[in-house]
């Protein structure tokens, strides 16, 4: 998949219980599992307070987990895949690359 594929196309129907929603949940749960494991490794490796790079990575992982949890809540609420900026569907390609995306590419670029 290319970056262009992630910016065009339409979001699938993520109706709770549907096939697309199940696939999205699997991607999100896998993302959650991976990030949780990475956090555990960082915590086990040593003192986060004295290693700025490790602390920054820890914070990034924690924030990503919050985004994943928010995406799971959107999925449960039936609004997963809808851009929080413009209300339009987020392209499936973008959600495959970043399953916890809250914004379409255009709205994300505007936020910067």
Automatic annotation (TrEMBL):
PANTHER family: GENERAL STRESS PROTEIN 16O (PTHR33823:SF4), RNA POLYMERASE-BINDING TRANSCRIPTION FACTOR DKSA-RELATED (PTHR33823)
One MF annotation (Gene Ontology) recorded for this entry: zinc ion binding
Keyword annotations from UniProtKB, A to Z: Metal-binding, Zinc, Zinc-finger
Compositional bias annotation for Basic and acidic residues: 23-32
Region Disordered: start-end pairs: 1-32
InterPro entries linked to this entry: Znf_C4-type_bac, Znf_DskA_TraR, Znf_DskA_TraR_CS
Protein name, entry field: DnaK suppressor protein
Domain Zinc finger DksA/TraR C4-type intervals: 79-111
Domain of life: Bacteria
Zinc fingers classed as dksA C4-type: ranges: 83-107
